[in-house]
Amino acid sequence: MSSLLRATLITLALLTTAGCTSKPVLNPQHELPATGQVSEEKMKQAIVAALQKREWTVQRLGPQLVQAEITVRGQFYAAIDIRYSRNSYAITYRDSRDLGYKDGKIHRNYNRWISMLDRDILAGLRSTGMQ
User: Fold this and answer.
1) DSSP-assigned states of every residue in 6-21
2) Which CATH class is domain 3-127?
3) N or C: which end of the chain has fewer CB within 10 A?
């Protein structure tokens, strides 16, 4: 095997490995300390404000549940449920398109979107007086 062919095959193998973008789906959950509890209304407001900041669309707003979706670049779609109470919230995957969801794994960008949303929810709760 020529060294050029060998180098080409190694390069292709490395690019294929680097191109793997599926990661386990991120479903963050947070229990607030007893001193940091807020009203359900303030929890909902912090969640909705974070969704709006990150350009998610709120589909349904109910008692202890917010459902939202996002479409990025007109193609990549994700839908989530956020269940909340006075002392906790959890963001869970509901659906997606063109993000390669399979067997509990999804494109890493979905996890990045969720991580940023989670961070913004926590920041919003801190600004309402949560310790």
Assistant:
1) HHHHHHHHHHHHHH--
2) alpha beta
3) N
